[in-house]
Inverse folding.
């Protein structure tokens, strides 16, 4: 059974704070690691898909890193804004299975 | 529109009835996925279609659940003899190919009375 764990479960920061979340996944037979942002009343939106150990991706104020050997990925948000408030999901798939196994997410709330 | 379209957006039905949920993926996307999110739970994989290959049904929770994808495009998820524990948001996603970012629809909120 593949298990994807995310921490913290929830986070409350002030506008302008920088923050980061962790996603842990099984390191064997790794294929890809996905990050999604899910805002309330909307559908999940893809942020990054990472496949190579050491990958770093950036999209505006959001960036992510990947360590496939130890099985973790970090998502960073620099200078958080209220519009960053959402649940951030990571998901993992192996080379033998195309389905994504999702973590339960980190719920971020950014206040003024 | 250019996104993944799901219908209905909301469905309320009585326990024991059958329901059919529809997903219209992005044109040209070969991969199509169904997930559900029950209250307080994470996204749970249900089924995956890739081109003309046999679907991966490993996530379907019981034999009351089935899905098909006609002509490599529109998909329907059918739940027979619904139970209260089937109440959830059912999300469909599509991607250009396996391993590519998935594009999600807005979901169908299913409530079983």
């Amino acid at each position: 059974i593949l298990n994807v764990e995310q921490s913290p479960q929830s986070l409350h920061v002030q506008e302008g704070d920088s923050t980061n979340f962790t996603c842990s996944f099984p390191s064997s037979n790794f294929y890809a690691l996905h990050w999604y942002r899910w805002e309330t009343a909307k559908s999940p939106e893809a942020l990054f898909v990472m496949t190579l150990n050491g990958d770093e991706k950036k999209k505006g104020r959001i960036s992510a890193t990947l360590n496939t050997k130890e099985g973790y990925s970090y998502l960073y948000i620099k200078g958080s804004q209220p519009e960053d408030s959402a649940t951030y999901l990571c998901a993992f798939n192996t080379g033998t299975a195309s389905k994504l196994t999702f973590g339960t997410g980190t719920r971020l709330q950014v206040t003024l | 529109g250019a996104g993944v379209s799901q219908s209905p957006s909301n469905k309320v039905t009585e326990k024991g009835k059958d329901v059919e949920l529809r997903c219209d993926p992005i044109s040209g996307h070969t991969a199509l996925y169904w997930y559900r999110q029950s209250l307080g739970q994470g996204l749970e994989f249900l089924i995956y279609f890739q081109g003309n290959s046999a679907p991966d049904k490993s996530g379907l929770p019981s034999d009351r659940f089935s899905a098909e994808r006609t002509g490599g495009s529109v998909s329907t998820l059918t739940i027979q003899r619904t139970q209260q524990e089937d109440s959830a948001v059912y999300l469909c996603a599509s991607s250009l190919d396996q391993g590519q970012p998935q594009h999600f629809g807005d979901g169908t909120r299913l409530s079983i009375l």
